Amino acid sequence: METASGNSFSDLLFFDNPLGWGPTEESIPAKFIDVPHAQYRKTDSLSKVADNFGSVNTKSRGDYTTQMFHSQTPFNTYGTEDPSSFQFTSDFKKKNLRSSARSNKDSGTWQQAGGYKSRQVSRNTRDFNNKNPRGQGNNRNPYNKNQRDSRPDYRNNPNRDPNSGPYKKNNYRQDKVTRDTSVEIKADWEVIESIDFAELRKTRGEIVSDPETIKENGSLGYYDNSFDNIEIRNNTPLVRQGNEKTSPNSTTTDDEIIREMSLEYAQKYPDYHIFFTTDSILSHLMTCPRSVYSWDVIIRKVGNAYFFDKREDSNLDLPTVNETSGLPSNQNEEQSAERLSMEAGYINRVFAQQALSKNRNTINRGDGVGEDEAPVLYRYRKWDLGDNNLLIVRCEVNCVVEEGTKVKYGLIKALNEFDPKVTGVDWRQSLETQRGTVLATEIKNNAHKLAKWTASAMLGGCEWLKLGYVSRGNRGMNAGSHVVLAVQSWRPLEFGPQSMGLSIGNLWGVWKVFMELSKGLKSGTHVLVKDPAKGVVRLYAVPDDAFEEGDAQEEEDA
Description:
Elements: H1 46-49, H2 97-107, H3 109-112, H4 116-129, H5 135-138, H6 145-149, E1 190-196, H7 197-200, E2 212-220, E3 236-237, H8 256-268, E4 273-278, H9 279-286, E5 296-302, E6 305-309, H10 337-354, E7 363-365, E8 377-384, E9 389-397, E10 399-403, E11 406-417, H11 420-423, H12 427-430, H13 435-445, H14 447-459, E12 464-473, E13 478-490, H15 492-499, H16 504-519, E14 524-530, E15 536-542, H17 549-557
Parallel strand pairs: 4-6, 4-9, 11-12
Antiparallel strand pairs: 1-15, 2-7, 2-8, 3-13, 5-6, 5-14, 8-9, 10-11, 12-13, 14-15
Helix pairs in contact: 9-14, 9-16, 14-15
């Protein structure tokens, strides 16, 4: 190549580095190999890297310290750095400023710089001159044992309120709760399957057709609409009668109508799997992923019929209290989980009868109920679940609600307050102005119970769910008397999905898991038991007479 003046340039050589930037080993001229060069950290600033005159900073930089008594060249390095020690994420931990201040105070560094000592004195002087009452607190010497011990001891004070103060019980690690299983696990019981609640929450299912009501039996009373107008100022005492009527709540296999249906449908549908249960058991299984306490359900397989049942002394029908609150059960016997559950069961039984109109005649279906039995209607309903699966459920309805000229089925239930300090929400102060807060707290603390009630109302075809707010008399001090503070009405199909996040598809999906599991069982008796400490339910194969000890004892006594 020649220019206008006739001078020529040699061809320029360019080297491409496809693996990165900078010269490659082949492109470095031989005369520059082994020439010393400055090594720098990956975090060094560009000003230091580009400093060709050695005017480096005198501060320490680890292995590459440029000391003032050595020749100031960029090639003065001390030691080498292992490249494997480089990390993209720094693991630098911040020092405790308080401990740093103490160590620097002892070494005198802060005092020389006018730091700790001078700042502390100036702050105390400023507060004293301004007559700030908090200035006296700054004169406290944190290293003086006498002053430190003179502070009130909240932790060891027997008269302190455990729900307040700097040592509030919720601020510290709570004691581990140890619960027992609902039924004693015998040595001869065989574990067949274990199901995790996390998997049940992901299931989804659908029903093939709408339910068909096969038969209705019992009596119903009209709901008293005046209960919807109850307020805090004019609350209604819960009437405690000496002869409360009980509901004819028999188990699945003891129900005569279910026994007749099992024989009829077993012959009518020999190729079908037919499942019999009650709405209390079915709703419990559908919502079991929300449960915390231990429970058990018996499965009896006879031919192509499957009976989901409960034990005679089972507490499956008793409503729990604060089951999902996350708080440990109270060690006080008066507020134990068992006592609170029995109290809640009594409140629901009495409130369901008191909320019925006394001026209207009951509606009778079938054989009705006895004189000593509470008015309740049992609806025997059938679902076709597809794949030759039939489900027959005895559903409970305890009232009818008038809507103009129409009459709708309803379910009456009651939430109860036993101690406002436990939940942190006082119903007497919050129900009128913050009813949404009260309901949200109850959904949090009693998620399983409310979901179970909602599912039962859906299964029974109830269009109204009446929730009463019942509190103890004398603000929780008297467990023998109760008052009705308010009543709230909900439509189950709206209350479940909107207020509780209850998915109807998930309810049926959970049931189909238990249904498919039972179809693979041999004829005989099995039991589902929820682990008291984990979200796991286990299926056991048990002897046929495992739960007949109580019956045998009664026969011997007779």
